[in-house]
Amino acid sequence: MVPRPLDVGARGRGLRPPIQVAKDGRPRGSRLADLRLVAIPASAPTLDELVELFSKSTGKESSSREYRGVLLSFSRFARGEGIVLCSELDFPLLLAYQASLAWLAPSTRRHRLLFLRQFLRFAERSRLVRPGLADGLRVQPVPPHHPRPALSLGDSLRLISAAPDRRAGLLVLLLLGTGARISELLSCDLSSYQDGLLYLSGKTGTRAVPLARSVRSQLEAELSARSDQDGSAPLFRSRQGRLSDRRAREILEGCCRLANLPLQSPHDLRHAACARWLRAGIPLVVVSRTLGHSRPSTTLDHYASVTAHDLERGLSADPLDQGLEGASWSEAIPE
Known about the structure:
The protein is mainly alpha-helical.
């Protein structure tokens, strides 16, 4: 295999722009640090092989994992349609895959298709697929996001109290108390908690989330009861080992029914944590970092639901209003 420079940039959200490669194989411009050397097999590679090469070329480890997960799901779909080699990719397969994502949220669907389109451009520049596939993949814009009102503090407490056992109670409590993604929480081990901090690994890397006193005491009680286990044991376990995402959602739905509340997803509890913190006056930058967002604008756009009560309370604290109440400004206005 002969290494050669390839364009492995990306134009999706939060990704670096592509590097232009001249006909002689040398990169145009001065961004040499962004260019990766990858070894392309002389024979036509399979989709899985090219996915591994492409994901390693993205540089950042968290980006590599995200690329790899999305593209391997596409590879599995293609394999189910009888396509294994990159050279066998065609437009009908891409249309069928795009239709299979219809059940996803618009932003998630767009995110996956942007990854796939960049992967196809990578393959086209390597001359491993027929040209035009990437441009034929239509990515629709995401409609405006209107977050629904978050779960109130009273309903959050009812949900925690309705948990039928210690595992369910701790799951709901940590979802509400940390704002963690369900995947981050389920990947935690017993050793993920140290000195009052819960270490979560997500899209933006590993972050340390400080726990409130009541949340910390419940977690420490669980760790004390399992002190005889190794630190690599999963924090949330099942009969098969680590608690699955599907089973965790079923547990949460059961708690919602017991609390006589509308069904809530794990992401709804993340939304509730964000809204609660912002209403308590916690700075936006702190909330954004706690949630693991790469930019504070993401926190505002997708999680900060504003109600009429929030607006009324905020405007009532306007210094202008307080100044006008104590001044005789009305006497200075000519009739």
